[in-house]
Amino acid sequence: MTYFLLLATAIISFMGLWVPSLQEKFIFSTKSIKQNNEWYRFLSSGLIHADIPHLLCNMYTLYIFGIALETILQSPLYFGNKGLYIFALLYCTALVVCLIPTYIKQRKNEYYHCLGASGAVSAIVFAFIVIFPTTQIELILLPGIHTPAFIFALLFIGASFYLSKTGHGNINHSAHLWGALYGMIFIWGASSIFSTIDLKTTFVSQIKYYLSTIF
Q1: Which residues are paired to 114 by β-bridges?
Q2: Less crowded by CB within 10 Å, the N or C end of the chain?
Q3: pLDDT single digits (tens) 60-89
Q4: Domain holding 78: CATH number?
Q5: Which domain holds residue 21?
Q6: Is 180's pLDDT higher than 70?
């Protein structure tokens, strides 16, 4: 499923860069959604990107975390045969959910546009963190510097919250924030319904054990 998402997103993103009319048709546009009821843009906007670096960053992150998450979700210990569908459902619903706060905030701004799979990719990363909260993650802005995943999660959520409030740059930090939070909530909820593992308890237990080895 991860490979399918990577391939589909890459192909459509490249097409969008070459054919501006396609990107215009797929982009998240509050005006088009509100006036023309083009609600499909909540999903389609995740299939296009602003440029090559934007695409590569999202797809590289999806590849690293998506493969690992998809593999563990399909193991008998977690969801077994349901794992593939849970992974796909997480990604697709995250594309929509991460943009709901953006639409509510920007619905009166007919010039607002955004695009990219960052919100859904954030959901994948944070679902992975729920399962492996003490795994070492390298900080993108500080190559060579690693931190436990739960520390990275706190830094990411804090930074995304701050940047979404200040409106820094042209990046939709709100989508990152809500995608990340949704990824955690989704995987906790899915485990309580389809798995015998209590991910909330194991999440806290792993962090407590990690901290006990330090202090």
Answers
A1: 28
A2: C
A3: 999 999 999 999 999 998 999 999 999 999
A4: 1.20.1540.10
A5: 2-214
A6: yes
* Cβ neighbour number for residue 177 with a 10 Å cutoff: 24
- Classified as helix, coil or strand, 9 is helix
Say whether 154 sits in a helix, a strand or coil.
helix
Could you tell me which residues come within 8 angstroms of residue 103 by beta carbon, excluding any fewer than 6 positions away? 30, 33, 42
Q: What is the pTM of this model?
A: 0.93
HEC profile for 34-56? HHHCCCCHHHHHHHCCCCHHHHH
Helices 118-131, 83-97: inter-axial angle, 10-degree rounding:
130
Residue located via tokens 């994948």: 124
Least confident of 22-31, 120-129, 133-142: 133-142
Instruction: Return d(Cα 14, Cα 49) in angstroms, integer.
Output: 8
The answer to whether 101 touches 172, Cβ cutoff 8 Å, is: no
Is the model's pLDDT at 97 over the cut of 80? yes
What is residue 28's three-state secondary structure? strand
Domains contained in the chain, number? 1
CA distance 152 to 132: 12
123 pLDDT higher than 90: yes
User: Chain centroid to CA 188: how far?
Assistant: 15
Q: Which helix (H) or strand (E) holds 147?
A: strand 146-148
Residues in the chain: 215
